[in-house]
Amino acid sequence: MTKILKRLNSMLYDVELKLRGYIVMPYYIYIARNKGEYIADKDWDNLIILDACRYDTFVEVSGINCPYIISRGSHTVEFLEENFVGRKFNDIVYVTANPQVNIHAKDCFYKIIPVWKYEWDESLNTVLPQAVYKYAIEAEQKYPNKRLIVHFIQPHIPFLDYPELSVYGIKKDYLLAMNKKPNFKTTNPWDEAARGNIDARIIWEAYKKNLKRVLPYALKLTKKLTGKCVITADHGEALRRIWFPVPVRIAEHPQYVHIPDLVKVPWYEVDKGERKKIDYNTTEEREKVRCIVRKLVAKGGQYEGNNNNKSHLSVSWIWRDGKILLQLSQTLNQI
Question: Which long-range contacts link 160-168 to residues 24+ away (Cβ below 8 Å)?
Fold first, then answer.
């Protein structure tokens, strides 16, 4: 009898998955709209991301009663597309344990440091938090004038203390980022819990333990890194039923499902007073500026290296705004 009920429950969940795709996702895309904040525009020097970390779980486990923000994505891919794709952030070095960054946002940053590639743990099919911590410290030493995003994979699966719950971990993403094709079928413990195949209490316990594993490294980074640090998440995690726009179960973190469980994330700021002097430029941009100045001088224009006199061109001002630089460059090329 129990097997029959489980089978029926699993079949019902498959129907709910289709309803989620046909009704819930379009509702949040076209009607509710995205109400999240653009994190690149917020004030920070170092952004520490705990992948799939719920706000309430962060407060419970850390004991830190911090504010929250609304993320622009309920999934890492959506988070990356909404915040970074289509733009260029020459002020950001991205240290990541999540291969999705290289797959979906590889040209968006000054530099991506793929810790997932250098420190892949074959036995757990993930990247351990201490490896990300090490590369974050090295990145600041190498790029002291860049903003850092440090993306830990925990508390996202696989659960380090319960590896049997997700045997392949994030290996599928790892292989795709390496341009290899996965030859195995993955199972997700959150989905299995929704189907009744795993006790939900075990899932939540494993999830909290994963957060406890990564949290000390994230907090230690706020003390080690120069400038204003923020601990946040790309999205949350869910295992519950929603009743609107249709009654369906939501497990894990599907894209375009902007319920509070998935988009309400921590925003814990640690401001030590000292701030980084951010360099927004690349060598290529500097050469463009020099070229522009030479053209202006050749045509009788004046130049001073400051913006105190509005009649003079300020190279430093142009450097800090790539759009203005591009427009000016195009104008001069037409002269």
Answer: 160/124, 160/126, 160/128, 160/209, 160/210, 160/213, 161/206, 161/209, 161/210, 161/213, 162/202, 162/206, 162/209, 163/123, 163/124, 165/189, 165/198, 165/202, 165/203, 165/206, 167/125, 168/125
Which of 236, 270, 304 is a domain's end point? 270
Beta strand pairing status for 147-152 and 46-50?
A: parallel
Position 284 scores a pLDDT of 53
Structural domain that includes position 310: 283-334
In a domain, 259, yes or no: yes
- Digit-coded pLDDT (tens) for 173-223: 999 999 999 998 888 999 999 999 999 999 999 999 999 999 999 999 999
Q: Which residue's entry shows tokens 């060598």?
A: 283
Number of domains in the chain: 2
Instruction: Please report whether residue 275 resides in a domain.
Output: no
pLDDT in tens, 123-181: 999 999 999 999 999 999 999 999 999 999 999 999 999 999 999 999 999 999 999 99
Domain contains 277 = no
DSSP category for residue 315 = H
Q: What is the predicted pLDDT for the residue at 279?
A: 87
Among the residues of 200-248, which ranges form H helices? 200-224
d(CA 118, CA 136): 13
The fraction of the chain above a pLDDT of 90, given in percent, is 76
Q: Are residues 11 and 87 in the same domain?
A: yes
What are the tokens at 269? 């700021």
Question: Which of the listed residues 270, 295, 310 is the one where a domain comes to its end?
Answer: 270
Same domain assignment for residues 111 and 189? yes
**Tell me, what CATH number does 18's domain have?**
3.40.720
- Classify 223 as helix, strand or coil: helix
